[in-house]
Amino acid sequence: MENRPIYLDNGSTSFPKAPGVGAAMAKLLEQAACNVGRGGYRMAYDLESAVLDCREKICRLFHFQPIENVIFTQNITMSLNLLVLGLLEPGDHVICSSMEHNAVARPLEAARKRGVELSIAPCASDGSLDPAVLEPLFRPNTKAVILLHASNVCGTLLPLAEVGALCRRHGVFFIADTAQSAGSQPIDFEAMQLDGLAFTGHKGLLGPQGIGGFLLNERLAQALRPVFCGGTGSMSDSLEMPPFLPDRYESGTPNLPGIIGLSAALDYLEERGTDAIRAHESELTGAFLEAVLNMSGVRVLGKQGTEGRAAIVSLDFPELDNGEVAFRLENEFGILTRVGLHCAPLAHQTLGSFPSGSVRFGIGPFNTMEQIRAAADAVHSILKA
């Protein structure tokens, strides 16, 4: 076993971060920690240019335009709340899936209690979604469909492109939660016929915690109202929020160290390539699945192969306590996982693992085959004890 822990909790946050992230953030804080949109001097203008550069990289990653429609937030939960609360009114109808993370499910439940109608499309026991299940759920007052792309519990990918086409035919907004897919799965905003896309910087994008954002097309921008209001550095003579983007949805001082760190991470992603990362993670995921599927006393949640899934494997130990298994993985083998319901009770109900939850292995771009084999051997040892 390695002297240092084997980190397999990349579903929570990536670790290590991309090379250069920490140095870029430290350089900003030590040499140029001014503000943007508030100072009329060269240092502020240079920093504004660096923020613009990060927006451009986000556009390239998601095949998106225009650049001003990239909005930065603190995290993807904040992004999803802004999209839900800023779009839905009492009397509107919205559809989500039974695999949603609480970052979607809780804002929608709060909206339901304010008079928004909610339908939850049932997914199969492996977490997959048949787009045909959505068709009878549409109503005359349906305003949006909000779906995650990859399950944070079992990695199953939902068919965004097919659902996007369905939403376009019905004339409703389509918003995607890409928390577990951005950076390793191909995401094309236009090809998937999205209207909005929420992202986080600290998972597959390999950046720091505390930075996220969302993209929205002009149609959604016209329908969305600001939830937060305040200073933007623009139109300071008015008590109204500016009508133009990104200022309309970016009140207050942004997380500039986070944006600069994310920009450095995006440089690494562009250099290594998301296709290469996906191939690497898929190889490791396949090896781990092959090993644990042959073990008795453990159940793999979701799909049993690498097709149609991200690099997340959740295991349920019916004859053992999942919490004890996770504890032993760390304390006896130095393997770091996450145990519980993973902020996704709806998903665990769908997968048949509620309320016991599961032990989640989140595989990342810096894991190695040696580490994956060590994790599989550790699971085998615990089962045989």
Total of DSSP H or I helical runs spanning 4+ residues: 11
Strand arrangement within the widest β-sheet reads 2-8-7-6-5-3-4
Overall geometry: globular
Q: Got a strand count?
A: 13
Class per helix and strand makeup = alpha/beta
- Percent of residues in helices comes to 25-40%
Order of helices and strands: EHHEHEHEEHEEEHHHEEHEEHEH
What is the CA–CA distance across the termini? 18 Å
Low-confidence stretches: none
Main sheet summary: 7 strands, mixed
Amount of beta strand:
5-15%
Rg, nearest Å:
21 Å
- The overall average pLDDT, rounded, is 97
Describe it for me?
- The chain is an alpha/beta fold and 385 residues long.
- Helix content is 38%, strand content 14%.
- The chain is built from eleven helices and 13 strands.
- α1 packs antiparallel against α7 (256-272), α2 (42-62) packs across α7 and α8 (274-293) packs parallel to α11 (369-384).
- The mean pLDDT is 97.
List keywords for this structure.
single chain, 385 residues, alpha/beta, globular
How is the secondary structure organized here?
Blueprint: E1 6-7, H1 21-31, H2 42-62, E2 70-73, H3 76-87, E3 93-97, H4 102-113, E4 117-121, E5 142-148, H5 160-170, E6 173-177, E7 196-200, E8 212-216, H6 218-223, H7 256-272, H8 274-293, E9 299-300, E10 312-316, H9 322-333, E11 335-336, E12 338-340, H10 345-351, E13 358-362, H11 369-384
Parallel strand pairs: 1-11, 3-4, 3-5, 5-6, 6-7
Antiparallel strand pairs: 2-8, 7-8, 9-10, 10-13, 12-13
Helix pairs in contact: 1-7, 2-7, 3-4, 8-11, 9-11
